[in-house]
């Protein structure tokens, strides 16, 4: 099934993509940011649903409906508009729009609208015989697909209540202290918006300040539309262990950064992203099971080896796909490996926090402590 999304805002396009994939995981998403490219491509593709913004940078949605009218004559259309008014409703009816959704919208509303318009798809029979082994499946997905992070279902209720909160940004900050994917998305989107002024954003408070209320809440909706995905008890337990470990290291880094007069929030955020790759691999393992893979007595041991081998690789891919700045990637990477060259105090602190949560690391801890004594108290100024 091909679904066309024509929306100029990249964050909103991602929200809509998550919503469609939650309802139809096998859907092919054709995403466009403007009228020009959408007009060309929609004449060449057969699509089963068009989600279209009324306002585009080089025209409006009605221009698209007019120019490709014959190609999409029987196509369900969901029109996204800033505000519903009588004139827009009349124009929408004239061009055969099936449904209208006003921005901003919450995840319940967009899922409901899409479910009404998406054609029913027959369930595919499992094909266990043709399924590659777990390791081969994960390698293939890492190389060929965009990896998706899983959020913690424990925060789902709180996320869904954010739009009703009298102080949503404060609560968003608190939820980010429990969620790897929320930290990553907030910082990635804030840096995308701040590219023009050369500022590098490394912490959640900085990100929320740069994003503002509307975009911060939109990211929370994006998370709610992205299923956490883990069902198998063994995978859920492993994911919980990784999340608990990240939070412990992050809290240690925060305390150390305060002690050594470094950027505590940047250190906390970096440590909350250290196992993104492992969480993505667990999601791939769930996808393998969903396709007919079999869990047996040796599966946990095999998966542990796969996580050790491919977790860091998957994490690097996610950081690149999210366009996280080099400074953020390096600060996260310092958790795993002693930094070299001109060392920022924050890198040493994230490394120290990691070591302090491991056994038999006294010698390495002393080495980092010696370096901390030699690094100036003032952090290196961050530039893009």
Plain-language structure description:
- The protein has 384 residues and is α/β, with parallel strands linked by helices.
- The protein has 2 domains: 2-117, Rossmann fold, CATH 3.40.50.2300; 153-374, Orthogonal Bundle (Hypothetical protein af1432), CATH 1.10.3210.
- 56% of the residues lie in helices and 7% in strands.
- The protein contains 17 helices and 7 strands.
- The protein has helices spanning 10-23, 35-42, 61-67, 86-94, 107-117, 134-144, 156-160, 168-176, 180-193, 204-224, 233-259, 264-271, 276-290, 299-321, 326-333, 345-356, 362-374, and strands at residues 2-6, 28-32, 49-53, 55-56, 59-60, 77-81, 99-102.
- The strands form 2 sheets. It has a 5-stranded parallel beta sheet, sandwiched between helices.
- It starts with a strand and ends in a 10-residue tail after the last helix.
Query: Per CATH, what is the topology of the largest domain?
Result: Hypothetical protein af1432
Residue-averaged pLDDT, rounded? 83
What is the number of helices? 17
Strand content: 5-15%
Overall number of strands: 7
Summarize the structure.
This protein is of the alpha/beta class and 384 residues long. It has two domains: 2-117, 3-Layer(aba) Sandwich (Rossmann fold), CATH 3.40.50.2300; 153-374, Orthogonal Bundle (Hypothetical protein af1432). The chain contains 17 helices and seven strands.
Write the layout of secondary structure elements.
Blueprint (H helix, E strand, L loop, with lengths): L1 E5 L3 H14 L4 E5 L2 H8 L6 E5 L1 E2 L2 E2 H7 L9 E5 L4 H9 L4 E4 L4 H11 L16 H11 L11 H5 L7 H9 L3 H14 L10 H21 L8 H27 L4 H8 L4 H15 L8 H23 L4 H8 L11 H12 L5 H13 L10
Parallel strand pairs: 1-2, 1-3, 3-6, 6-7
Antiparallel strand pairs: 4-5
